[in-house]
Design a protein that fits this description.
Layout lengths: L1 E2 L1 H6 E11 L3 H8 L3 E2 L4 E5 L2 E5 L2 E2 L16 E4 L2 H13 L3 E10 L2 E11 L2 H26 L1
Antiparallel strand pairs: 1-8, 2-7, 2-9, 3-6, 4-5, 5-7, 8-9
């Protein structure tokens, strides 16, 4: 399973759904080897279809494809009513569609798409401060429990 950790840090995820993805055989093998980077990727609605844009799926090492493009756009497979719902929510609320996870289930590759609202810089700093405080508290508790 490949997670987009940057999406969870930079965005507040409000809603998510599972989508299939159109891939070639070599791309499926590369995904199973976890050779995917979703950090700069996003999902775009084009002609009432969802497209995964800028996801980097590295070339499978045993593939014979010479002109392979690792960051090409790939079509996501969802129902039309889900596309319309996501598109209206994203445009109305100034939100972004992001790939959150990519995983294999029952022999098929799935992408979890999330509807996210961007966090402000001060929100990210507050989250980081809370993590640091929890980490420090946990260290102190361990120090006294050992003795």
């Amino acid at each position: 399973m490949i997670k987009n950790k940057k999406a969870y840090f930079n965005y507040e995820i409000l809603e998510s759904l599972e989508a299939g993805i159109v891939l070639s055989g070599a791309e499926v093998k590369a995904i199973r080897e976890n050779r995917v980077n979703l950090e700069d990727a996003y999902v775009k609605v084009i002609n009432d279809e969802l497209w995964l844009v800028n996801a980097n799926i590295a070339k499978f090492k045993h593939s014979g494809d010479v002109e392979y493009d690792a960051t090409k756009s790939r079509k996501l497979l969802v129902k039309k009513n889900q596309v319309h719902s996501l598109h209206s929510k994203s445009t109305k609320g100034r939100m972004t569609l992001l790939p959150l996870k990519m995983y294999a289930t029952r022999g098929k590759i799935k992408v979890q798409v999330g509807l996210g609202r961007g966090k402000k810089r001060h929100e990210k700093k507050n989250i980081q401060k809370e993590r640091d405080l929890k980490r420090e508290l946990h260290r102190e508790q361990r120090k006294y429990m050992v003795k």
